[in-house]
Amino acid sequence: MQVAIATLASDRALMLAGEPGTAKSWLSEHLSAAISGTSTLIVQGTAGTSEEHLKYGWNYALLLAEGPTPKALVPSPILRGMREGRCVRFEEVTRTSSEIQDSLISILSEKQVSIPELNEVVSAERGFNIIATANTRDRGVNEMSSALKRRFNFVTVPVVDDLEQEIRIVTRREAELRGDYQVGVEPPAELSRVLVTLFQELRAGVTKDGKTKVKAPGSVLSTAEAISVLFNSGILAQSFGTGAVTAEELSRSLMGAVAKESGDDLKALREYCETVAKSRSGAWKDFYAASKKHLKG
Question: Structural domain of residue 174, as residue ranges?
Answer without folding.
Answer: 163-294
